[in-house]
Amino acid sequence: MKVTDHISQAKDTLISFEVLPPLKGKGIEALYRHLDPLMEFQPSFINVTYHRSEHVFKKRADGSFEKVVVRKRPGTESICAAIMNKYNVDTVPHLICGGFSINETEDALINLRYLGIDNVLVLRGDAAKNETAFEPEPGGHKHASDLLKQVENLNAGIYLEDELKGTHKTEFCVGVAGYPEKHFEAPNMETDLRYLKQKVDLGADYIITQMFFDNAKFHAFVKSCREIGINVPIIPGLKPIYSKKQLTILPKTFHIDLPAELSNEVLRCKTDEDVEKVGAEWLLMQSRELKKAGVPVLHYYTLGRPLLVANVVKDI
User: Sign of the C-alpha dihedral, residues 240, 190, 4, 10?
Assistant: First the structure.
């Protein structure tokens, strides 16, 4: 079932979660243990992130180094299918530009349709760890909008091989990312919103936002989107604070601000257990206010803290 169908049929704010694939070498049981406490809330869908390959140097026996390609968290497509099979819940695999050619992307989309997956979240993805700026894979997409065009082409039955006849049209519901505090590479919010509008005009069906900790910024973002003609559902992305380290890690990694009230409360904490309580209270406050405001879905980045998120959702 498509994300937009879940939203259109809902009588109240829905719940969804986002998870990481297991590290290579780990079984899927750890992911199931992560999801088990969250399933009682009957999420409408679960997002599964996609991770690009990385280049690493491994030392040979003779002392020289060999450059090899590794993907630390493989298996997004099959994990989505496994989650659907185990929990009977819809999944949304992330689809990224980095590390994939357009042919590999087409094959991945075909596999997803064979698996009965109706949704994808289209993202450019981050730069590789050894790159100062994003560089596309040779023969790959440079922008999320280009990747979105490829998905929409498949939805129209247009494949990379022009000579194919009588092609099957896919029916993906496509989500894209939005940034209430601006994408860090955009020169200003106006430009960032213009790029977002372009993706919606190309066919994006809904938007999920980057995490934020100030609801006023989300509401301002939605207002700005509506003013320029972006009328698709906008889903807020939420994450709990659970350690003091996050006061520096989150702004640095995700280019977001933390409200002074929240950071001051965290700094007064003696232990990370105290920080978890503060983070849970803040997340609960955000969630209740956003639900009251009528957002279509509360989307939680659960990474590493499913029980914290579960306890918050239970109290909403």
Answer: positive
